[in-house]
Specification:
Layout lengths: L2 H11 L12 H16 L3 H8 L7 H22 L2 E12 L3 E10 L3 E9 L6 E8 L10
Antiparallel strand pairs: 1-2, 2-3, 3-4
Helix pairs in contact: 2-3, 3-4
């Protein structure tokens, strides 16, 4: 690769890599997601994403965009599902030693959504890898 091409590639890719705070334990991460879900339940959408932002190695503008999209979708969700009435932690899933996921249920009058927080441990500390919500409640059910 020519030196100029390498520099250009580095300059284009580098802004996508953002340093993030991290968690020593999943217990610390769980406290943060509990706080975020409580904020989502109170419809403090932007504040909830702001709480997550320091631990999420994405550009702030990308997280702000997700916050704005969620904030824009929320009135439609409320119209369809009713008022938010409660939330509960449902499960913690592990994928080896480096992946973990916390799943929450946010209950509304007529339906519910699940919040999914995925964490990744590249070395010895945990960072947020993804945050999403949907109404795929069937994914929360396991046969016994």
């Amino acid at each position: 690769m020519k030196p100029l091409q390498f520099v250009l590639a580095f300059v284009l890719v580098f802004p996508a890599v953002v340093a993030a705070d991290s968690f020593a334990t999943l217990g610390e991460a769980r406290k943060l997601t509990d706080q975020a879900v409580a904020l989502f339940q109170r419809e403090e959408i932007v504040t909830a994403y702001d709480v997550l932002k320091p631990y999420w190695p994405l550009q702030q503008v990308e997280i702000d965009s997700l916050a704005n999209q969620t904030h824009t979708q929320w009135p439609l969700l409320k119209q369809r599902f009713g008022a938010s009435i409660a939330s509960e932690f449902v499960q913690e899933l592990r994928g080896g030693a480096s992946l973990a996921r916390f799943v929450y249920l946010q209950k509304f009058q007529h339906h519910a959504i699940r919040w999914v927080f995925t964490f990744y441990r590249p070395k010895d500390r945990w960072v947020i890898n993804g945050v999403s919500f949907d109404d795929r409640l069937d994914l929360l059910l396991v046969s016994q």
